[in-house]
């Protein structure tokens, strides 16, 4: 069987350990069913990579490959594929229940892949899938934000952790949908980045929300998207949300949330986990294919922009360890992408 380069792990170790991520060789898999075999040209790193790789008492007999953002070229397709053909350029986040994309060739279900934006190179495209799917589903599926700017006139959204990967896309999508976008940031660089991407106002998430919102003319907000420390911000969110408003978070908690704080306002709360559709192979799994194609159209029309801020090269274990360490600081802006296999 032909072999490919990949980056994997046997043990879950601190990122400064030389064996936390390893250069390995694996057999190139074969496409079957609705799978695409993709020659991976660029990969991006997300907080989920760091969470999965975090130290724990477990070992893997075969190298475990992480990575849930990739862009590349379809080289072969399974017998059930109808949406793509060899030679197509694609981008996708993949499934957390399958081997990740940190390999030269990767299998992905066609229902969760999209055609790469024509105006972007592979690295620019690889920065987008996971964060875009998360932001899109959070806004339009979980919070129920209308796509029409006319319907959103006078409505506002608070995005907590606005300068990160998901926030960088959510800002653009919310602004394009006609919402007044308020982002949170605590540093000048992250504040400026958020403003460039559509935030009308910035408040500091280390301080109480309500007084800051009042100071910019908002007694409350109709929507809140929490991308940082759900439990830490819970009481602030409950105070800031409007009656009958909606809150969505992507960050799990280790402690119970007091949902009673939302009762008198008849406010609702929803979780967003972008792997739900692929993990459970839901009936609407192909919605992720459709939204990635819609995103590509918006990118190519100049209505949205990629959120890449760091290009690292080559794609190998040493470079990927560096990217993981950057994510672990908790202060990255935009997305980190790796390109060019050695």
Automatic annotation (TrEMBL):
Residues 16-338 form the Enoyl reductase (ER) domain. InterPro entries: ADH-like_N (IPR013154), ADH_Zn_typ-1 (IPR014182), ER (IPR020843), GroES-like_sf (IPR011032), NAD(P)-bd_dom_sf (IPR036291), Zinc-ADH_QOR/CCCR (IPR051603). Keywords: Metal-binding, NADP, Oxidoreductase, Zinc. The keyword Membrane does not apply. Pfam families: ADH_N, ADH_zinc_N_2. SMART domains: PKS_ER. The keyword Metal-binding applies. Belongs to the zinc-containing alcohol dehydrogenase family. Quinone oxidoreductase subfamily. PANTHER family: QUINONE OXIDOREDUCTASE. This is Zinc-type alcohol dehydrogenase-like protein. It comes from Paenibacillus solisilvae.
């Amino acid at each position: 069987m032909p072999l490919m380069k990949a980056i994997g792990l046997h043990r879950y170790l601190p990122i400064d350990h030389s064996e936390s991520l390893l250069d390995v060789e694996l057999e190139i898999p074969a496409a079957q069913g609705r799978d695409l075999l993709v020659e991976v040209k660029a990969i991006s790193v997300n907080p989920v990579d760091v969470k999965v790789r975090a130290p724990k008492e477990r070992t893997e007999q075969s190298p475990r490959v992480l990575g849930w953002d990739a862009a590349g070229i379809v080289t072969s397709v399974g017998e059930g594929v109808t949406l793509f053909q060899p030679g197509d350029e694609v981008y996708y986040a993949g499934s957390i229940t399958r081997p990740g994309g940190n390999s030269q060739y990767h299998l992905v279900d066609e229902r969760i892949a999209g055609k790469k934006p024509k105006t972007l190179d592979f690295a620019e495209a690889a920065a987008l899938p996971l964060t875009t799917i998360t932001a899109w589903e959070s806004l339009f599926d979980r919070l129920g934000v209308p796509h029409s700017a006319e319907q959103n006139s006078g409505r506002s959204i608070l995005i907590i952790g606005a300068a990160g990967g998901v926030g960088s896309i959510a800002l653009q999508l919310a602004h394009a949908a006609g919402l007044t976008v308020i982002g949170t940031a605590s540093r000048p660089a992250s504040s400026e980045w958020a403003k460039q991407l559509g935030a009308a106002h910035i408040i500091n998430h280390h301080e109480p929300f309500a007084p800051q919102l009042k100071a910019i003319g908002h007694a409350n907000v109709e929507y809140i998207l929490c991308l940082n420390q759900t439990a830490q911000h819970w009481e602030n969110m409950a105070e800031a949300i409007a009656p009958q408003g909606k809150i969505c978070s992507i960050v799990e908690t280790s402690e119970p949330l007091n949902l009673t704080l939302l009762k008198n306002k008849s406010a609702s709360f929803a979780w967003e986990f972008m792997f739900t559709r692929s993990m459970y192979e839901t009936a609407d799994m192909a919605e992720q294919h459709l939204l990635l194609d819609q995103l590509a159209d918006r990118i190519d029309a100049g209505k949205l922009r990629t959120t890449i801020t760091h290009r690292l090269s080559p794609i190998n274990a040493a470079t990927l360890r560096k990217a993981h360490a950057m994510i672990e600081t908790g202060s990255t802006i935009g997305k980190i992408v790796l390109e060019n296999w050695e």
